[in-house]
Amino acid sequence: MDVGEVVAIALAGLAAGAINTVVGSGTLVTFPVLLAFGYAPVTANVTNTIGLVPGSVSGAVGYRRELAGQRDRVIKLGAMAVLGGITGAVLLLVLPASAFKAIVPVFIAIALILVVVQPRINRELAARKVDRSGEGGIVTPILVYAAGVYGGYFGAAQGILLLGILGVALPQDLQRTNALKNVLTALVNGVAGVYFAFAAHVEWGPAGIIAGASIIGGQLGAHYGRRLPPAALRGVIVVVGVTAIVRLLAT
Q1: Which of 57, 126, 199, 217 is deepest in the core (most CB within 10 A)?
Q2: DSSP class of residue 65?
Q3: Is residue 122 scored above 70 in pLDDT?
Q4: pTM for this one?
């Protein structure tokens, strides 16, 4: 790699780490950069997933204050996220690359709608005095598993999907939900990355650059992202999500 490639990949990793922590979709920054430098799509996807694992962990650590009191959720939903991540990673190396392409933008669009209407849904549930202690029952873990499958397979906008699912299911503010989302995405990326390290071809140079830069980005995202009021955070989610849909449809 020449200096220009190293700098470009590092900047992409920095941006992706911050975006993943605040919203999700950092893959849409790093993945195209790797493609632009001539890496094959599956190799770029695998390399990108491994590279972003440390950034995901960094973001989760940065939001540790908002994780207080969510231990049971982390254990229950984390187990489903891990299972989903493993499933998605295996599918990436088994199925053709076009298998999920048509449905991915639809998933993101549904997630954006959930994020936008979440406050109204919560108000309606509160007005009707609906008991949400079950937090979605069996449906929420199943949807988290499905998001994990998608995250292990490709990962772009995995965070938006989880924010949409968890935002409706859990009776808490968006920042606490975002903290939980960061843990779940870190688990998905982590198990997928371990699998890829043994079962796929990885370009370790770019992966290392993305890893180092994404750690810094994750901390920056946690520092500034937790200061955003809910309305502003939703606005960021919508902008990133719409951009993700456009980028995916254009590829």
Answers
A1: 217
A2: G
A3: no
A4: 0.83
